[in-house]
Write a structure and sequence with these properties.
Blueprint: E1 3-8, E2 17-18, E3 21-22, H1 25-46, H2 49-73, E4 91-96
Antiparallel strand pairs: 1-4, 2-3
Helix pairs in contact: 1-2
Amino acid sequence: MQQLTYALYKGLQRPLIFKFFKGKYIYWALGSLVAGIITGGIISAVASAFAGLASLLGVSLPLLFYTISKQKKGLHSKGKDIAIYMIAPKHRIRTYERQKDI
């Protein structure tokens, strides 16, 4: 009995996109906004509303710009290796041929 195998490719996965941010950077941007809101709330409770607003902008904007700069470098941390990699497919479809009785 001969076994035939066929490579099964699931296709490329596309990253989640929200507004300008893609993939994991959506969570980074959300975290920077939450950090700015928390620090702005604490500063406004301790000092004044204007100081809270200034700290909200002072924390959120640099973190958002950092997130944007990291996103421009790529969604995943990529190495600069110069090589050829042979990767075997993870999934295979197996079919079996039936032998005919002669």
